[in-house]
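Q: How would the structure tokens look for this protein?
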Amino acid sequence: MIPKNTICIWYDGAALEAAQFYAKTFPDSAVGAIHRAPGDYPAGKQGDVLTVDFTVVGIPCIGLNGGPEMKHSEAFSFQIATEDQAETDRLWNAIVGTGGKESVCGWCKDKWGISWQITPRVLTEAFTGTDRAAAKRAFEAMMQMGKIDVAAIEAARRG
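A: Here is the predicted structure in token form.
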């Protein structure tokens, strides 16, 4: 069944490679159907991979090999909630260590330019908790980080 809402992500010929990377990196992720172009199009030829159905942590997506015209920005990102430092490190390192780029406050980009927020649950809990002083301390600690340091967030939260 075709989902009612699907995230369509534009790639420059690497939709299948990206989908395969996401499927092996993130839990509850998989590559589905691969659709080939029925005719030539501006970014490819008949028979080339045109779209790839995939899921990222249960979210249905379509990768479209649309060519080099469209570029990604931080205006769209996947926010992945992690349980602990080990999971945070594993996902961050998978993205950054395969040609991606580090950013700040838990953000990074994969080698295709897609932005990811690798966000430990403890950070979200600190921001949304009732102790506003703890939230401020955790926020200030996060503002100094690239990859989120769970122990530092927990320490800031405690004061």
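Strands lie at 7-11, 30-36, 49-56, 59-65, 77-82, 101-102, 107-109, 115-120.

The chain has a mean pLDDT of 96.

Upvote if useful.
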